[in-house]
Amino acid sequence: MVKVPESLPARMYLLAYDLRRGRMPYNGGRLGYVLRGAALAELYLDGRLVEERRGPRPGTPGEDPYGLVEQIAASRPRSWHYWVRKDSRAMVRRVREELAADGWIRVRRHRVLGVFPAHRVEVKDPRVVKTLWGGASSALRGRPIAHVNSYDAAAVALAAAGELNTVLPGPERRRHKRRITELSARTGPAAGAVRRVVRADQAAGGG
Asked: What CA dihedral angle connects 62, 69, 150 and 31, to 10 degrees?
């Protein structure tokens, strides 16, 4: 059995990788929203966040690997989509650095046009991405909703919400719309918040 990362944000980063082209097609923007949503969903699924007045509040004490519970506890009540958007680009860097440090990916720094700093990401073992995709595919097309692994359900919900075409192209999202809605309900409020933020950016001309 191929080992995969334990954290949901790390899984979503690898799942977004384009194996066919051998590159990460997303640098910030919607990937950042998906990763923040994944961190929120993980905390919600583990009971460390609960919903109160349509926003997250601290729940059962436990690990807080990205400091989100601490941020939320120190803030006035805010919506889920506020927390999806906040520090989203920094979240991409954080998850990428963790995956590199743990040996899942190789990151090469270079400059676009010799000026703008950029990163070229290479997944060390493509089987990891294929395993994650298999779990998401099974959640989308296979067993009854109640028997789907919660992280696989979250992977589908977040990928659809973030419109990650490497995972779920538009035709697939439309074809499985009802199933995605059911999987999103298993995941909690974070996926819906990601969808709202992505669509708000699109309406504002942000792609």
From this structure: -140
Which residues, listed in sequence order, are joined to residue 57 by a DSSP beta bridge?
50
SS3 state at 19:
coil
pLDDT greater than 60 at residue 207 = no
pLDDT category of residue 8 using cuts at 50, 70 and 90: very high
pLDDT surpassing 90 at residue 205:
no
Helix extents (H) in the chain? 8-15, 30-45, 68-74, 80-85, 88-101, 126-141, 150-161, 170-175, 177-187, 190-203
Structural domains of the chain ordered from first start = 8-203 (1.10.3630.10)
Structure tokens at 140: 């989308």
Whether the per-residue pLDDT at 53 is higher than 70: the answer is yes
Classify residue 12 by its DSSP letter: H
Distance between CA atoms of 58 and 129, rounded to whole angstroms? 32
- Which segments of 16-149 does DSSP mark as H helices, in order? 30-45, 68-74, 80-85, 88-101, 126-141
